[in-house]
Amino acid sequence: MSDLLTNSAQHGGQLGEGYGRTKPQGADFSHGIALYLEKVSVWFDSFRALNDLSLYIAEGELRCIIGPNGAGKTTLMDVITGKTRPTTGTAFFGQNYDLAKMSTEQIAEAGIGRKFQKPTVFENFTVMENLLLAAPRDKRVKKSFFSRLAPEAQLALDESLQQIRLQEFIHKPAGLLSHGQKQWLEIGMLLMQRPKLILLDEPVAGMTDAETERTAELCLELKKNHTLVVVEHDMSFIDTISEKVTVLAQGAILAEGTLAEVQANEDVIEKYLGR
Ligand SMILES: Nc1ncnc2c1ncn2[C@@H]1O[C@H](COP(=O)(O)OP(=O)(O)OP(=O)(O)O)[C@@H](O)[C@H]1O
Ligand SMILES: [Mg+2]
């Protein structure tokens, strides 16, 4: 397998001959943009959840998205991950992946990882088992879960564990972890896929202050190697991690800028923050 990977790296991401399929070449970020959403609208019957929304996320950026309940923040993540299709408009990952034409699995394989609002770890499995379950399957072998780990999976496991700092709990059933630890485990599970773009939907909801602080540290660490889009209502958390903040309301962008800038924006005060 390591030969195969070396071979694949040397040939522009194509898998070597004889394996019956070719791998996509990987997202093309040559223009410095990881995600392009252009004039995206999503209609649910007669309700418009996203309204002509255009959003560009630069490679390596950590973008925070805030806004009132029902603003369309989760719907935006659903569009990016293929769970919901844009009714009109386009969504591209890099120059080359037309997200509206890809399945959720293809989008995950292309390098977009997402954490949902509620943690979805397998409570009866240990931390390690949860991480292994999240490792990409080698489609050529059936016996993957209990068989020996491929070297790159071991590496991904070590890196994930180190980032989420759950090494001492690897044999603990996930059901016995605290809420915050479960959220970190889920982030670790998505890191097993080696995503380029990570979407986090309300990662600190329900966390203690200490867990929230630790999650802010984790986001800043992840930023070193990933592009991140983080949706949150917790303003002190946003204040700790944010660079550019986008405020969404009624499916459209209300304001963009630093947190201080958007907090001083009259529209934002009126429609979101209150006086
Ligand atoms: N599948 C669906 N069918 C119909 N309406 C939907 C669907 N999904 C979302 N909506 C509606 O679209 C609007 C936007 O919802 P969304 O979940 O994106 O908001 P949000 O910004 O994530 O809110 P919150 O901060 O509460 O999580 C809401 O009014 C919601 O009821
Ligand atoms: Mg939401």
TrEMBL record:
<feature type="domain" description="ABC transporter">
    <location>
        <begin position="35"/>
        <end position="275"/>
    </location>
</feature>
<dbReference type="GO" id="GO:0016887">
    <property type="term" value="F:ATP hydrolysis activity"/>
</dbReference>
<dbReference type="GO" id="GO:0005524">
    <property type="term" value="F:ATP binding"/>
</dbReference>
<keyword id="KW-0547">Nucleotide-binding</keyword>
<feature type="region of interest" description="Disordered">
    <location>
        <begin position="1"/>
        <end position="21"/>
    </location>
</feature>
<dbReference type="InterPro" id="IPR032823">
    <property type="entry name" value="BCA_ABC_TP_C"/>
</dbReference>
<feature type="compositionally biased region" description="Polar residues">
    <location>
        <begin position="1"/>
        <end position="11"/>
    </location>
</feature>
<keyword id="KW-0067">ATP-binding</keyword>
<dbReference type="Pfam" id="PF00005">
    <property type="entry name" value="ABC_tran"/>
</dbReference>
<dbReference type="InterPro" id="IPR017781">
    <property type="entry name" value="ABC_transptr_urea_ATP-bd_UrtD"/>
</dbReference>
<dbReference type="InterPro" id="IPR027417">
    <property type="entry name" value="P-loop_NTPase"/>
</dbReference>
<dbReference type="InterPro" id="IPR051120">
    <property type="entry name" value="ABC_AA/LPS_Transport"/>
</dbReference>
<dbReference type="InterPro" id="IPR003439">
    <property type="entry name" value="ABC_transporter-like_ATP-bd"/>
</dbReference>
<protein>
    <submittedName>
        <fullName>Urea ABC transporter, ATP-binding protein UrtD</fullName>
    </submittedName>
</protein>
<keyword id="KW-0813">Transport</keyword>
<dbReference type="GO" id="GO:0005886">
    <property type="term" value="C:plasma membrane"/>
</dbReference>
<dbReference type="Pfam" id="PF12399">
    <property type="entry name" value="BCA_ABC_TP_C"/>
</dbReference>
